[in-house]
Write a structure and sequence with these properties.
single chain; globular
């Protein structure tokens, strides 16, 4: 299996497991609201009196981070300069996600907030080099990344458009998960003869 296809598999697996376990964590969190709870509330151990939602969320987002870092490192080894830019951005997004899992909400020195912002920013930005790649590229990736980037700006400004802070945060996260899933799957399922060595 070549590096490009492996990066696609890792990205796809990371996103799928995170989406599924995010649903599980939300379902078992007592009284959880997608509008009035942050996504990161799912990882706050102080909010875990009776259910393992924090362990599930933190493990899942940490795994997502590790898989994205490996995928990013694989892109960095490819020859085209565009892939090196993409690899650096994906690696940083993965590093941020790993930090979110290691330093859950409530961690000192605002570490969780810093790593969350790194994840949100570089997940959105990496959609642009992904969208113009010859293999796996699609204008849709850049559009979805732009939606996430606009939502991030609104979120930081405290403007939630009636969605609540949780709803606006999901407008950052879900478009980026969507493009990453589509991009990763397109690389993972590419014909062997068309993929780069």
């Amino acid at each position: 299996m070549n590096k490009e296809r492996l990066a696609g598999y890792l990205t796809t697996i990371g996103v799928v497991q995170f989406l599924l376990l995010l649903i599980v964590a939300e379902a078992i969190y007592p009284g959880y609201s997608v509008s009035h709870n942050y996504i990161s509330d799912l990882g706050n151990p102080s909010y875990e009196p009776t259910t393992p939602h924090a362990a599930i969320f933190n493990s899942s987002v940490g795994l997502l981070g590790v898989l994205l870092m490996v995928a990013g490192a694989l892109f960095l080894t490819l020859r085209p300069r565009l892939d090196k830019v993409l690899g650096a951005m994906v690696f940083l997004a993965g590093l941020g996600a790993l930090g979110v899992g290691l330093f859950p909400e409530g961690s000192p020195y605002h570490l969780h907030t810093v790593f969350s912002l790194i994840t949100f920013l570089f997940a959105s930005l990496s959609s642009y080099p992904a969208s113009v790649r010859r293999r796996g590229g699609s204008p849709l990736w850049g559009i979805l990344g732009t939606i996430g980037l606009i939502a991030l700006v609104l979120f930081v400004m405290g403007y939630y458009a009636g969605l609540g802070w949780g709803g606006m945060e999901r407008l950052i996260v879900y478009p980026n998960l969507a493009w990453a899933l589509g991009f990763g799957a397109s690389l993972a399922t590419a014909e062997a003869g068309r993929a780069s060595p």
